[in-house]
Design brief:
single chain; Nucleoside Triphosphate Pyrophosphohydrolase; 3-stranded antiparallel beta sheet; 3 helices; 18% helix
């Protein structure tokens, strides 16, 4: 089926924040009726499934205020530099959050995080050949001040997801995708610069 049958009749910006914005669209449905949809606009993000030579996943643990708890996550960050290739953003985030660099980069999986309410999309990269990143260390601020880094065997990370102990959506998707790709000999990986049709486009008012 084609999305062309859904036409935006009117669109209103309700809120513009530091990271996200909210708009309401009046959307004509396939039967001709019109309904209101609230949409959170997001710049998009990248995540890194960094896997060392012992098949351990690098996880960061940090406080997430909307859910009021610390979560184990993949190193990740916003696509907030205009025109920056996603893989460069991922490399920067890996260095800032873990102090690591990687010799090999591949696209592991692309996700729409919650397409019923937001255009947020995240591309998760697989990074191999880990080493200490050169240059000055990143100076953390805000929640990153209490961020910690650990390494967990990939199979244990998958088991933690299935037990409900690893609950960050990108982390769950990333570790499960990595385990599936590893079982297939990594043959389904895409190059780091593979096209990404789901990447959010900058909003123009």
């Amino acid at each position: 089926m084609s999305a062309d049958q859904y036409q935006v009749v009117a669109s209103t910006r309700q809120f513009t924040g530091h990271v996200i914005s909210l708009r309401t669209d009046e959307l004509r449905m396939s039967d001709g009726t019109v309904a209101t949809r609230e949409i959170v606009e997001h710049p998009g993000a990248v995540g890194v499934l960094a896997l060392d030579d012992d098949d351990r996943v690098v996880l960061v643990n940090q406080y997430r205020h909307p859910v009021g708890r610390y979560l184990d996550e993949l190193p990740a960050g916003l696509l907030d530099v205009a025109g920056e290739p996603a893989v460069l953003a991922a490399q920067r985030e890996l260095k800032e959050e873990t102090g690591l660099a990687a010799a090999e980069w591949y696209v592991l999986i692309d996700l729409f995080t919650s397409p019923g309410m937001t255009n947020e999309a995240i591309r998760i990269f697989l990074a191999r050949g880990l080493s200490d990143a050169p240059g000055e260390p990143f100076v953390p601020e805000h929640e990153e001040i209490t961020l910690t880094v650990s390494r967990v065997p990939l199979d244990e990370a998958v088991a933690r997801a299935l037990r409900g102990e690893l609950t960050n959506a990108a982390a769950v998707a990333g570790v499960c995708a990595a385990a599936a790709s590893r079982a297939g000999g990594w043959r389904d990986l895409r190059p780091a610069d593979a096209p990404w049709s789901g990447r959010p486009r900058p909003t123009v008012d």
